[in-house]
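Practice problem: predict the structure.
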Amino acid sequence: MSGVASGPGAQWLLLESADAPLAVTTLRQGFAGVRCFWLFDDTEFQPLRAQGPVLVELSGCPALAALCLRDPHTWRGLLLGSEAAVEPLLGHLRRMLTVSFDLNHRALFGYYNRQTASYFFDACDAEELSRWLGPIEQIRWFGGTWADRAIGLQGWQQLRNPHRPVEPLGIEQSLTRRQRARLQTCLLEQHIWRWGQSMGTDYLTMASHVQQGLALGFGEQSLLDGWLWLRLLHPRAVLVPLPAGLTGEQRLEYLRRHWQNDQP
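Answer:
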């Protein structure tokens, strides 16, 4: 992925409407003639239409296309370059919405979120990228990982379709192990970012606390959150060996009592 917004202009913006209310209002008031297609229409997610992404046509509206590049913090979404007609493009984007994993599990896939895209597409090889992009020639977005966002290193990301000969994207396409791992990392780092924002603690410190908690076996979110509260209350406390055979809750309680008793 590159860090520049270069190359031919995008024909479409896949706008994450729920995260960009100002952009949606500007579309309605200032660009009423621009064609828009709600991605959740004609899918099982139609009841959530207003919270879903909207595909905005940029062709023929250079002012809007320039605005998307100039103010990516307002126009939050993916810029798509594609010569395909709107119906095949919509069909492909809607097929991307539902994925499967672990044999019997399926989920709504928010690939249109810029942070999610930064993790997911990084986990695709040339064949997988060809399959997932389908009729899309080029995709660009302003963003990065949650760590990038926390330390101010977001920038323009760009991918081109390598056009390898592959089978088209399947219905409820199964995610690869690497893709699942990267999306799990995305969720974990988002959790770190939110904790840092809410507690006023820098990202690297929170990430260190999280890694320490995971190493202690606090993998479940409730246990991990309990550990983070405890560690923030006792930032300089020294870890002690934990007795064998304790559950996660018991290990957390053991540390809590030990650190409270050690306070002067």
